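Same chain as my last thread, 139 residues:
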Amino acid sequence: MSVEQEVVQIPTLDQLLAASAATPEFAEAAHRVASEGRGNERVVFGPGNPPVKVVRALCGLLEKHPALVIEKIEVRGQSGCSDYRGELIVNGGERRFRFTWDCAWKAAELGWKDYFGEPDQIRAARTFGYRCFQHFEEI
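reply #2:
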């Protein structure tokens, strides 16, 4: 069955937090970013970091490292049209992760083209949500 034929089940932020070792305070702060669209004392990020892309990076970390106790994260990222790349600094520098989320890359990997023959980044982002990471690694 191709990706086009199957329904891709993407865990929600709630599900990822529930399955993680993140502190309740961090979970509440992550929910606030998702609902209010701005950073806070436990999820810190500056201008140029769209909250929706920050949440995608948090979801990637929660999925890849569910046993990680997270109290606070600083996100240092740069957002482009189809991509978001940067670094997650966990608990004041205790652990660091570098990531590149890129829905155009994911679409190209799958051979998905839009009407103009370009990688169908909108379709990839809608289908895979936060799972469009080209790479996600600890540094």
